[in-house]
Design goal:
OBAP-like; 9 strands; alpha+beta; 8 helices; Oil body-associated protein 1A; globular
């Protein structure tokens, strides 16, 4: 696929951070603990598309931490520097945990096998042999992604309804200019990584037929309903 706009980092409205605010931030950073954030140990770069529109593809930088061997959680930014916008979240589970999910839930989760084996999911700056040790595990997992900020539309604030995102599952889906832009900026060759990862296997039971939206589109919609409190509507 071709023709996506790779410039998806809109300017945020508002006054620049004041010196007093910056000083206060340094003071609180010295005093407080940041346990959940400090557990982040890994940076993964990949691509997501909107569950209802494959033509809307975005670069996604995952900053992840394990809660245990079978569950990791990731903050997703549009870029990896200190000016990155927090655009979403991803939960990653092992195949074993995925198989315990209700069938109605499974459609929200995507597989990672193709992303890993095609080379398009990678760890920026980490030598190939080292990152492939963990990617052998990632290839067997499933992820659930929600994006809150539609940066591909140029929104300068997080507007609208959070959307379920999906991941690539076969050749020809990723826009070529988006792929080339990432390859150039991070000095990586997806084709070379694909060759180096040929030995990696996906889920032991194969990709579940209900994963990846069961091959259909998914779109989050908002519906107004009665608000219930203590058994009564308001």
């Amino acid at each position: 696929m071709e023709g996506v706009n790779v410039s998806t980092h809109p300017e945020i409205p508002g006054e620049p951070t004041q010196t007093g605010t910056a000083i206060l931030e340094k003071a609180t950073a010295t005093i407080q603990g940041f346990g959940p954030v400090n557990k982040i140990h890994q940076h993964l770069c990949a691509f997501h598309f909107y569950g209802h529109d494959m033509t809307r593809q975005v670069e996604a930088h995952h900053f992840c931490g394990h809660l245990n061997e079978e569950f990791r959680q990731c903050l997703i930014y549009d870029r990896p520097d200190d000016d990155g916008r927090l655009i979403g979240l991803e939960y990653i589970v092992s195949e074993q945990l995925f198989l315990t999910l209700p069938d109605e839930e499974k459609k929200f989760w995507h597989s990672h096998e193709f992303e890993v084996k095609s080379g398009v999911l990678f760890m920026p700056g980490v030598p190939g042999p080292i990152q492939r040790q963990d990617l052998e595990k990632v290839a067997k997992t499933y992820g659930k992604v929600i994006h809150f900020w539609q940066v591909d539309k140029g929104d300068n604030l997080p507007l609208g309804i959070p959307q379920v995102m999906m991941a690539l599952t076969r050749d020809g889906q990723l826009y070529e200019n988006l792929a080339k832009d990432v390859e150039n900026r991070f000095n990586i060759s997806f084709e070379e990584e694909k060759e180096n990862r040929a030995h990696i296997n996906g889920p032991d039971h194969g990709i579940h037929p209900l994963a990846n939206a069961a091959g259909k589109g998914l779109r989050t919609v908002l519906r107004e309903v009665d608000c219930f409190k203590e058994g009564k509507s308001t």
